[in-house]
Amino acid sequence: MTRLPAILGGTPAFAENLYVTRPVVPAFDELCPVIEDLLQSKILTNNGPYVRQLEEDLKNFLQVKHCPVFCNGTLALQLAVRGLGLSGEVITTPFTFPATPHVLRWNNLDIVFSDIDSDSYNIDPDRLAALITPRTTAILPVHVFGNPCAVECIQKIAEKNGLYVLYDAAHAFGVQYARRSIAQYGDATMFSFHATKSFNTMEGGAVACSDPDLAKKLQDMRNFGIIDENRVGDLGINAKMNELQAAFGIIVLSKVAASIEHRRLLFERYTSQLKEIPGIRLQHIRPVTRLNYHYMTVQVDENVYPLKRDVVYASLRAERIMARRYFWPLCSDYPCYRELPSAAPSLLPNAQCLSRQVLSLPLHVDMTPLDVDRVVEILAQLPQHTDAIKKATRLIVFAMRDLTEDC
Ligand code: T4K
Description:
The chain has 407 residues and is α/β, with parallel strands linked by helices. The chain contains 14 helices and 17 strands.
C-alpha cells in the first residue's frame, strides 16, 4: 500500500519547503572581517578594491581576458548589447527568462524569435539561416540550464553573415565545453550572479570578453559613461556592483568548485532514478560538457506519464517540493511580444511544447541524497493515484487555462 499523496490529504513528504534552489553563502565568521574592513575604510562602491579583486578572480576562474562586473545580469546584458553596437534585428530564443528579450527591447532592437531544439532546449542552429535578413546584426543564444549551445555551428553562421554572437550564460557559470570555459565562446558572454545562480553576489552579473575596447566601454557605461573627471563618453547608466557584494562574491567564489561537486552527485542520483519513470524525459546534455549541475529540469510527457505537468507541479507543491516551471509562459507569448511576426506559436512548436512540459526540481547544496530519493519516489508514485488526483485537481486544471491543449 503506497502512501496517500499530500494533494489527496496525506501528510506532506517534507516538513519544510524544499526550494528549487538555495544560494551558497559565506560563513558568518568569513564575512565578519570583510564587514569590519568596509566599515573602517568607508569605501563602499565605485570600483573599489573588492570589485577589482573579484574581477581578477573571475578572470582566472573563467579563463578570460576581461570580466567587468555589474549590479545584476540584466544590466550586464543590456550594456553588452549597447557596447557591441547592435542595431536592427537580433535573433534570440523564446525559451528563456524575460530578461533576455527585454534587454533587446530596452535597446530599441527588433526581436526575432527562433524555435529551439527540443532535446537540448537551446536555440536550434538549423533555423537561424532562414531568420537572417539584411537588418540582422547579432544572435543572442542562451545556454539553457547550463547546457552549452551548438557553439561551433552558431559561430560558423555568425561569421558567414557578419553577425555578433552574444551569449546569455546566466545559468552557465562554471560550465566547460570541449575543455574550454563556456565564457570563451562568442564575442561576449553574460553571467548572472543572482542569489539563485551557481555563483552569486546576492545580485550581480558580469560580461566576459576578449576585446579590451569592449571591456573598457562596459566599465565606463556601468558608471554613467564617465571616462574620467573631464569626459563622459557613451550613454551610460548606474550598473555598478558595490563593495559588499564583491567581497561576498570573493568568498563565495572559493566555494563554487565544492558546490558543483556536491550538486553533481545529487544530479547523477536524480538522473539515474528519473530515467526509470515512464514519461519523465531529461534534457539532452551536449557531449564533452562539464556541467555546473545547477538545474534538474525534467519534461513531463503526458502522452506517457498519466498526469499533466501542472497537475504534477501542484501535487509536488502539496508535498512542499517547490518545483518551478522554468520557462513558462514562453517569452513570445507575453503581451509585449506576442504580436511580433516571429512570435506566432506555429513558428515555435518545440518551444511551445517544452514550455508546457518542463518542471525544474529542487537541486542545491543544502539537499541530501535522501531528499533526491524522496522527490523521485513521489514522482514515481503519483501515477498510482491518477484518477483521484485528476478528480481532485479538476479546478486547478481549469484555472491553468492552457492545460487542455496538446502539443
Ligand atoms: N537570463 C536568464 C536566462 C536568466 O535566467 C536570468 C535570471 C537573467 C538573464 C537575468 O539575470 P539577473 O538580472 O537576475 O541577474 C529567478 C531569478 O530571480 C532570476 O535571476 C533567474 N534568472 C531566474 C531563473 O530565477 P524567480 O522569480 O524564479 O526567483 P525566486 O525569487 O522565486 O527564487 C527561486 C527560489 O530560490 C526561491 O523559491 C528560494 C530560492 N531563493 C531565492 C532568492 C531570491 C533563495 O533561497 N534565496 C534568495 O535570495 O527568478
